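To: structure desk
From: M.T.
Subject: fold request, one chain
Message: Could you run this one when you get a chance? Sequence is below, nothing fancy, just the single chain.
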Amino acid sequence: MGALDGIRVLSFNHFLSGPAAAQHLGDIGADVITIEPLTGAFQRNWAVANRFVDDTSVNHITTGRNKRSIAVDLKSPEGIAAIKKLIETADVVMENFRPGTLDKLGLSESEIRAVNPRIIIATTTGYGVDGPYAKRPGQDVLLQAMCGLAAHTGSMESGPVAVGSVPIDHHAAALTVAGIIAALFERERTGVARRVDVNMLQAAMDLQGESITAWMNGAEKAGPRGQDGMANWFSPAPYGIYATKDGHVMISMSTPPQLSGALNLPQLAELSADEGFSKRGEISRLVATGMATLTIDEAVEKLTDAGVWHEVVRDYDGLLDNPQVEHLQAFTDTIGSQGSTFKMLSHPVRYDGEVPPIRTMPPALGEQSREVLAEAGFDAAEIDRLIDAGVVVQTNKMRN
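Reply: Done. Structure tokens follow.
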């Protein structure tokens, strides 16, 4: 059972924001049907780090669960006719192509609503559905450059740095889910079926709401990044990462007197919290000197005793040994079609203390084509004819 039981979603999405949003909807009960080209969606044929497990792309593992797959030739009139039959039964159509792509296929908003006036249409684009940048490629690292995220990451000494993951894609996915659920709620209350538009540019700006707002409202700044080891331009020292003899420790909110006692730095004892802002560089350099004399274990003990907020800097392997990650069941292990273990991130929200189950593994290409078409009203002979004509395929293959 889930919050969206009985809601059918047609997902015309390719990696990453769209499929991630669709998976989230599937996790909470929606019947998500991913509509793929005959050769398969991008995420099943390409993998980050070129990593496939049981011939399944790690990208497909990331976003493919709790969905069904139908593979259709969308350039065929018969294929579009079949999709329109599915639209009759759906509550949501979602896509993250460049603006105008579905229009060219005969699936414009007006054509979709002519088939089903109650349908919610959700688009996730790079820069919006219109405007001077609408046709640009919406890719995470390019958006990091445009929106200030790269310019505000790193240090003034070393220059801008790209974030080492794809946070904009994931935040755009979360906003898409929120928009779709809001639109579904409104439709049930008022009967109005909205169009939901999310773009990665505003998602990237929303990720930085605190710092952008401070910057735009005249906050004092020496530059867009931190100096002397500071993690950013707007926090009081010593907010940042500091090297120890055998690793690195992040220090968060603290006062100079706290650090004076923790690191035996008497120069900090009389400084006020306000001077954490005005003397950022001086404080940060002193803390760096003090931390460099300690091992990680020694630093953690001293910072803990002084009440300084801190955390050891770890890579992803550290998540496997993290007791809170284990407690939250933040990973789910499942078995792939050839017996290998798939390690997935669990759905990140609990409902009455429970994590939604994985009902279905990432599907093979067109794995449910027959059953989806049958549910849309096609009889067995019609389905056979579509498959024989190559308009629809059903396979047990994870990729071409």
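Reply (cont.): Residues 167-190 form the longest helix (24 residues). Let me know if you need anything else for the meeting.
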